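Progress against Task 2.4 (sequence-to-structure conversion) is shown through the following example record, which the project officer requested during the mid-term review.
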Amino acid sequence: QVQLVESGGGLVQAGGSLRLSCAASGRTFSTYAMGWFRQAPGKERESVAAINRNGGYIYYVDSVKGRFSISRDNAKNTVYLQMNSLQPEDTAVYYCAARGDQPMGVPIEGYAYWGQGTQVTVSS
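Structure tokens generated for the chain above:
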């Protein structure tokens, strides 16, 4: 079991930046793949970014490539999502999630553990 707590959401103007953090409980954080997902009103949840257990594999959805950066600090049991050049279409509830890692690449589905979410609102 792992518990996840997100922080860092808020209201920002278009073009601004936010840094989301996700703190995980437990001593097995370094064995998990971690992902950031988002869900906007009336839309399905989508995978935004994911990182494998040692940071060697990273995934981004096309719409955030070049603007968002995922990273992790296994010593602090924390994963981050740096979001730059935010646009109104980035407005959503952002969720952190964890799952067992896979031998190659980074998983973008099948996440078992979820945080409560943090609201990100980008005004135009």
